[in-house]
Design a protein that fits this description.
Layout (H helix, E strand, L loop, with lengths): L1 H13 L11 H14 L6 H12 L4 H10 L4 H10 L11 E6 L2 H5 L2 H12 L12 E6 L11 E3 L2 E3 L7 H5 L4
Helix pairs in contact: 2-3, 4-5
The protein binds FE2/S2 (inorganic) cluster (FES).
FE2/S2 (inorganic) cluster binds next to α6.
């Protein structure tokens, strides 16, 4: 009997067919399956599962959202609703490095607009967008909580304060 149950469990685990997606490797799918397994019977675990899957793939393509929903036995529309509601999630590909530029008052007064236009011009990048080679994403944020260092930008985990428009590209070139 136990053997039969184990067999059924195995079938259940392997019956979801991983869709083909150019941004998701086989290794990523394995990690995604592990995330689903770990979270699938936990109430309210969908946000955790989406976050962990986003960490693996770097964003949440629609095919992946549907796959997570199926794996966790949740309606696809509900999971898509969660993924599109929270700003924590990105449904579009992100760059390897996210540049957050502060558009709050202190940074505005100290010239962040000039910094932003230099970045946009150099990398053909618009606020809210990602470069074609997925090197950078650019996001405008209200206040980074470091007004004393204005104008401020954060790249990944690094905070760059008192950033001068003439030097911003030089600073960004360190991120490949
Ligand atoms: S206004 Fe830019 S860090 Fe606060």
């Amino acid at each position: 009997m136990l053997e039969f149950e184990h067999y059924l469990e195995k079938i259940e685990m392997t019956c979801f067919i991983q869709p083909h997606h150019e941004d998701i490797t086989q290794e990523m799918w394995q990690k995604i399956d592990a995330v689903i397994e770990e979270n699938k019977d936990m109430p309210g675990a969908i946000i955790t599962a989406l976050r962990q899957c986003q960490d693996i793939v770097n964003y949440l393509p629609r095919e992946l959202i549907d796959y997570i929903a199926d794996g966790m036995n949740l309606p696809r529309s509900e999971v898509f609703g969660v993924a599109s509601f929270y700003s924590l999630f990105s449904l579009k590909p992100k760059g390897r490095h996210t540049i957050k530029v502060c558009t709050g008052t202190a940074c505005y007064v100290k010239g962040i607009r000039e910094v932003i236009s230099r970045i946009e011009g150099e990398y053909q990048l618009k606020e809210g967008g990602t470069t074609a080679d997925r090197r950078f994403s650019l996001e405008g944020v209200r206040c980074l909580g470091a007004c004393g260092l204005a104008p401020v930008m954060v790249v990944g985990e690094d905070t760059h304060g008192d950033i001068a428009a003439e030097k911003v590209i030089q600073s960004l070139e360190a991120y490949k």
